[in-house]
Amino acid sequence: MARHVCAMKSMIIKNPKFEISVMNKSQYPKNKLPQIVLAGKSNVGKSSFVNSLINRKGLARTSSEPGKTRQINFYNMDERFYFVDLPGYGYSKMSKAEQNKVGESIETFLRNSKNINLIVLLIDIRHKPGENDKMMIEYIKNTGHRFIVVTSKADKIAKTKVQSYVDSIRKELGISEDLIFAFSSETKLNRDVIWEVIEESLSIQ
Question: Which of 68, 47, 54, 42 is nearest to 16 (CA)?
Fold first, then answer.
């Protein structure tokens, strides 16, 4: 069943903070805080997604140069959970070696982290899922973790076309309609609905 847009009020985060950037699993935080993991192509809007959800403009830094971020960033939400921002994949100007390194970093994290409660795959609503997106959704499915797909930048297309674009992406990825949500960091479209999903995932330990 699809969720209604008039969902519960968003979670209030009072003291969000950037905690650490890591390159390998030995650097992962040693605590057992639940993790909401963000994956997606370079420049898909993961940082804007975090900032919009918590109503902070500059906590998660957006880069003007796609593909620049190679590290895994941990954002601590009131010592309740982490937003974990994985490196963006699929940037064409990366060398093959760099792309492989990013892929290995993502795979290592998803395979080794014991505290993942939800994986959020972001896809730009204006574009059909690419091969990297399709590989990522299949990998995520195979991990067995709860996941949703967020189609970012919904404000960039006409409101009347949003649902048809979402449906097209859903069919390409082979997922059910209750696992995909249009989103805009500008208009806050579906912000409360996504918070509801996050809160539900955090209640399952």
Answer: 54
- In the chain, DSSP finds a helix count (H) and a strand count (E) of 5, 7
Between 23 and 166, whose confidence is greater? 166
With 0-12 / 13-18 / 19 or more C-beta atoms within 10 angstroms meaning exposed / middle / buried, residue 149 is buried
Q: Is there a domain that residue 10 lies in?
A: no
- pLDDT tens per residue, range 97-140: 887 888 899 999 999 999 999 999 999 999 999 999 999 999 99
| CATH number of the domain where residue 77 is located | 3.40.50.300
Task: Judge whether 2 lies within some domain.
Answer: no
pTM of the entire predicted model: 0.91
Q: Say if CB 126 and CB 156 are below 8 A apart.
A: yes
Tens digit of each residue's pLDDT (9 = 90 or more) over 63-100? 545 445 578 999 999 999 999 999 999 875 677 888 78
In three-state secondary structure terms, 140 is helix
CA nearest to 18, candidates 53, 45, 47, 40 = 47
Based on the structure, what is the number of domains in the chain?
1
Task: Write out the residue range of the structural domain in which residue 178 sits.
Answer: 16-202
